[in-house]
Amino acid sequence: MKFRIYTLFIFFVLGVSGGAFAGGTATCAVVYDYGWDNTTTHWLTNPVRAYCAVEDIGKICDIHVSQNINCTKSDEGGVPWYQAAIDYAANKNGSGALVEPGRRQYPVVALTRGVVNVKYPIEADWPLGKIGIHLQGGVQLIGVPAQFGTTLVKLDKSWNRNDLLNHMIVSSASRVGDVLNPGRKINSVVIDSIAISGSLEDAIPGCKVFDDRHSHVKNGVFVFNAEADQFGLSLNVTNLILQQLKGNAIELGFYSPFVDSGKASCTNDMLCKQGLILDVSGKGGSDPAYVAYNNICGVGYGGITIIGKNVKVEGNSILHVAKTWDGENKSVGSTMGISIGFVGSSSNYVINNVIEGGDYGVGSDGSFPVFIMPEYYKKYWSAITEVHPEFSIKYPNGPVDSSGKAYLKPMDDILANQVLMDVASKRAAQVDDRVGFVIYPVIQGNRITNSTVGVSLFKVDGAKISNNVINSTSKSKFGILFDSAVNSFAYDNRINWWPVGVYVTGMPYQVSKWGSSYNGIGIKPPLEGSNQWAYPGNIFQGNIRNVVIEKAGSGNNIH
To answer: Which stretch is the leader sequence (predicted)?
Structure first.
């Protein structure tokens, strides 16, 4: 992978210059120009200018890829210094418009060793809201590798503790004006070797259970509407440390049920319209979008979530994901270690990750991406309360106020939306039985512990789940769940200490035409170009029941 060659070169240069600075240095955002020198076969790294906090102007920048760079720039036009560096490198303003005609874009901003304090938010248009850093398309954001220290991005101690930052780092075509234009795609997104904390402390909090009282940041990294460039590079999010975040640590892709995409699956029903999807897509083959070797700990909602295609999630450590569900207190959960796919995602890989906690260790949701207006909650309130009877008590006057505005509380709105998506999925399947599936996910070689459900496949086609260790250590439900999944296989897994090791359910025509049908437990499908089936089985230990097929479709087999 081309990016990783460049990263290794940075590591080498840092190793040479790492001991040059002692005290009196500045944390900087250094803008670099570089290119490939065919005569010496190495990366050229040419610093253009350096930005820092106003009180540090004139100081030498701390450890980075070159020595003896003085900070000469700071905040510009009400934009904080670290954002001013990115905007200058991109040669764009907040709306993505060109600033200096005729000047080229610089491809790298390096954050040096130290702490980047976000004192005030950048106000972005919906759905971004208050953000810390906006990474413009085509600019790579790189911190210092762990062996030479840490680049920590956090809120300043002066931050209003009653205020919430929506996203610490956002990568998109713009932050104001036309933010959700599907035609404005970005590529070459690289975010590497940065620590992000939702705490106000001047050090990384350390890996511990999520503490909502001391977290003031919702999401860590958010990237959407990204695709591969002509060289195959769409996205690399690597070597990050993300701790104490209320929402998702790394969020790829965007789906809004509240924006009408203009697409519909059927007619004559309000639940036929589709919401807006702006995904992240790799090139496939040897050039997937890449999310790897990140250390995530203490998150309130999700570790890594994907809406996209050809994304490889590999070698990440995701610990202390909050749990909201013990398998009994409500019908479904919501938090997740890794979401491998949602609304039309395909060909994503989750490989060799360590996951602890969450309602679901690894999950997927191929629900129909319905467009929702407040009156939809009112019309389908009986269906919502049938699934969530506690809502009848919680909202005795219904889900919509006298002004026609929905007032479901956070998390409750997600559960209600899922019911509407289930109804819409069933309607869509009556027209086209291939609508709304997550297609061809691969979940392999992961270690999953202490989740209510280890691996959950909801509306999935063609999944392969293999060589995982899936352990239950507390209140739990299923090791692997097939729910309205088809043509999917679980084999060569170690599934230990669950009430049910593998559970297959989903009647035809509930949310899809096929329900759960033609799945194989302990059966390995033929490799491409072969017709040779294999029957390796799974290893079960300490489960109350190993495999249960109940209220499912046909053609499910166990070996």
So the answer is: 1-22
State whether the Cα torsion 129-130-131-134 is positive or negative: positive
Amino acid 483 reads D
C-beta of residue 270 within 8 angstroms of C-beta of residue 325? no
Q: How do residues 319-333 score in pLDDT, each as one tens digit?
A: 999 999 888 877 788
Nearest-angstrom CA–CA distance, 198 and 212: 10
Mean pLDDT of the chain: 88
Q: Would the pLDDT of 122 be above 90?
A: yes
Backbone phi, psi, residue 90, to 5°: -75, -20
Q: How far apart are CA 554 and CA 557, in angstroms?
A: 9
Query: DSSP 3-state assignment of 364?
Result: strand
- Residues 37-50 pLDDT 10s: 334 443 436 889 99
CA distance 117 to 111: 12
Cβ-contact 341, 364 below 8 angstroms: yes
Do residues 178 and 95 lie in contact, with contact meaning Cβ atoms separated by under 8 Å? yes
- The number of beta carbons lying within 10 Å of the beta carbon of residue 422 is 20
Q: How far is CA 122 from the centre of its chain?
A: 21
Higher per-residue confidence, 332 vs 434 = 332
State the residue for tokens 């999520």: 210
What distance in Å separates the CA atoms of residue 350 and residue 385, rounded to the nearest whole number? 34
